[in-house]
Structures are given as C-alpha cells and as structure tokens.
Amino acid sequence: MKQMGWAKSIVTRYKQQCSTSDHHQDKELQTRYYKITQDKALTEIEGIFSDKQRYEIKSISREHGEILLEAKKHAITIVVSVVPIRNFENAIDFYVSTDKWRPTGAYPQLKQEVIEAYNRLGKKITAVESSK
C-alpha cells in the first residue's frame, strides 16, 4: 500500500496543473471564502498581482468574475475566479498551469503560487468560513 502512495506522489509532482476546489483532499488547496463584494475582490486580486516584473495581467472579465494572468519568470498561467455566494461573500478559486516541463516536476511550484496568492489575499481582505 505504501508503494501506491509513493507512486501517486511521483505522478502528482509531475502534473502541469494545479487547482483549488471546495473539497480538495489537500487542505491548502481548498477554496477560500472572503467577506467582500465581487467587484472589490477583483480589484484586490489585481493589486496582489500588480508587480509587473513578475506578472502580466492578460485579461479581466468583471462580468464573469475572472482574471487571466501570467507569471513571467516560470511561464505559469493563472486563472482566478471570483464566485458570488451571497451578498458580501465570494469564493475565490485558482487554476494554475504551465506548458513547461521541469525535471524536478512543476506541481510543487504551481501549488506554491496558489498558497502565496491566498496568503497575500488574506492580508488584504477578510476570510470567512463557508456558509454554503
């Protein structure tokens, strides 16, 4: 049984995409909820990715609550989705991917990008427990 866990961790390490979701088995990659309007959340997300040396915002769709950006150094594409739950409560999810193969595996770096983004958001806006 241990070999299956080991094999799964190797396969995961070489995945070229990482995403968050409500029931993700990895607690660090579970959807986060924030007490903020969708429009203000999008503005705060723009702010945490405003470092033009590191990121380039490709498009913003306020109607759909999504931002598409690229992390320049590592050729990583990031899609941030802001999903309204109720007034002043929004879920924020990330989908992070790369086309670039890495000998040590891309997944740890993709996961770290998500964790860092959630940490930066947590310093700007109030997180809440999901009341779904």
Describe this protein's structure.
The structure is a single chain. By secondary structure, this protein is of the alpha+beta class. It has one domain: 2-Layer Sandwich (TATA-Binding Protein), CATH 3.30.310. Helix content is 31%, strand content 32%. Strands 1, 2, 3, 4, 5, 6 and 7 form a 7-stranded antiparallel beta sheet that branches. It is globular, with a radius of gyration of 15 Å. The termini are far apart.
Provide the fold topology.
Elements: H1 2-13, E1 17-19, E2 32-34, H2 38-48, E3 55-61, E4 66-71, E5 76-86, E6 89-98, H3 107-124, E7 127-128
Antiparallel strand pairs: 1-6, 2-6, 2-7, 3-4, 4-5, 5-6
Task: Give a short synopsis of this structure.
This protein has about 130 residues and is an alpha+beta fold. It has helices at about 1-15, 40-50, 105-125; strands at about 15-20, 30-35, 55-60, 65-70, 75-85, 90-100, 125-130. Strands 1, 2, 3, 4, 5, 6 and 7 form a 7-stranded antiparallel β-sheet that branches.
Task: Identify the notable features of this structure and list them briefly.
32% strand, TATA-Binding Protein, alpha+beta
Secondary structure category: alpha+beta
Largest sheet: 7 strands, antiparallel
Roughly how many Å apart are the termini? 36 Å
Q: Which fold name fills CATH's third level, the topology?
A: TATA-Binding Protein
The tally of structural domains comes to 1
What's the CATH class, please? Alpha Beta
Indicate the percent of residues in helices: 25-40%
- The beta-strand count equals 7
Q: What is the radius of gyration computed over CA atoms, rounded to a whole number of angstroms?
A: 15 Å
Low-confidence stretches: none
Q: What is the overall pLDDT average?
A: 92
Helix-strand topology string: HEEHEEEEHE
Q: Give the second-level CATH assignment, the architecture.
A: 2-Layer Sandwich
CATH superfamily: Kinase associated domain 1, KA1
Beta-strand percentage range: 25-35%
Q: In DSSP terms, counting alpha (H) and pi (I) runs of 4 or more, how many helices? A: 3
Shape: globular
